[in-house]
Amino acid sequence: MPRNNTLAILLLTATLAACSSGGRYELDDDKAPTSAPDVTKVEDAHPKYEPYSRGGNKKNYTVLGKSYQVMDTGEGYADKGIASWYGAKFHGHLTSNGETYDMYSMSAAHKTLPLPSYVKVTNLKNNKTVIVRVNDRGPFHADRIIDLSYAAAHRLDMLKTGTANVSLEVIYIADPESSALAELKGTELHYIQVVASSSKERLDSLASALEQKYQVKSRVQSANNLYRLQLGPIGQQQLATKLTEKLKQEGYPQSYLLTE
Q1: Rounded to two decimals, what is the model's pTM?
Q2: Nearest to 112 by CA among 168, 57, 75
Q3: Does this UniProt record's set of keywords contain Cell wall biogenesis/degradation (predicted)?
Q4: Residue 207's domain spans which residues?
């Protein structure tokens, strides 16, 4: 057999083997950058409304023999589990969202959240937090719930350990056009997400104090052993927006608006 044909067959065989074994999702040879820039000044991702992409949200997909179903919306999502991070192997390659992966940005991969989504990630060991923009799929390990960029992992101080126990909380931003129409119709109620904690007693106490201070009702919602303190309902979005900004200025910088 001619040498060129033999080489072509070998290359084809290697490609098929990579695809059947998971291809880019095999992380064994991933690594940190050899000469990374200073990422201490990289800002959190800035949550804003973005329509979910067509290319990155196939309803069902299969990787490494396991099937996954993408959520219709990330609104209200919260979880706890193990985070990992991915680096140089994927840097410069396309994400599942069709964008270019930049390990020095505040981004992440998740198996089932719609793309893009914004997620607040908290390292439960040191309480360090980061807000990332999810634009990729992974990590495809049963015991891990999110794959963080190098910059995000650096912020959470988990580069040396490789993994960390974290809590996740989606920061959901509604379509402003839909919100405006709902405001006119008066069919939606607004809540202000103030803070999340694993201690319900702490939030109950804080809720009473905030109700008295701002003259607004509150509620504490739970999901996966994480409790979220929200002020509301508030009927007018304009009033809710003003109170959100006031809360940010008065000691609750992570406050954001929810609509129902």
Answers
A1: 0.62
A2: 57
A3: yes
A4: 176-259
